[in-house]
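S2.1 Query sequence (Large ribosomal subunit protein uL18)
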Amino acid sequence: MANSKRELFLKRRLRVRNKLRKVADGRARLSVHRSNKNLSVQLIDDLRGVTIAAASTLEKDLGVVGKNNVEAARKIGAVIAERAKKAGVEECYFDRGGFLFHGKIKALADAAREGGLKF
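Output structure tokens follow.
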């Protein structure tokens, strides 16, 4: 019996997270979540279990409320890089979850790299 799309997504997410956990070396995790309407990203310190910085298309001051497109992803990537630098984080690892690395996810990652984050 074939797995559902959701089951495949969850398996892919766990596979990505477990591989990243092996090479984490105490660095923060840049975790991305994409829904049908919004895009959000968090910089998480897994050792302490706290969120260091976050950005989302739900934030009104960013001007991308409700937009889930590549331009919004670029803006969110730049914002998270700025907030990470302000919090003193320069290196992290990119946790794309179960999402494929193309389109919005790739645009977000590229913008965060341009903003100064290393992963």
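The longest strand covers residues 28-34. The domain at 25-114 is CATH 3.30.420.100 (Nucleotidyltransferase; domain 5).
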